[in-house]
Amino acid sequence: MARKIQRLTDNNFLVSFENDVWTESFENATSFTIIESINIKNDLLKKYDNSLLRVYTNYRLVNQK
Questions:
Q1: Range of the domain at 42
Q2: Can you give the pTM of this predicted structure?
């Protein structure tokens, strides 16, 4: 399943975790595998609170609780 990660502070979507690149465009965001998205989100949680991140799976919101 393709997953995309959104930062809610500015509503941008992740393009590259390694280079800290974000985009305003959902279509230009990188699609990550399940394992990639879990690892990246865990790393992002070192900088952002869980409530500031949203993960979309196959373009649907995944519950973040």
A1: 3-61
A2: 0.85
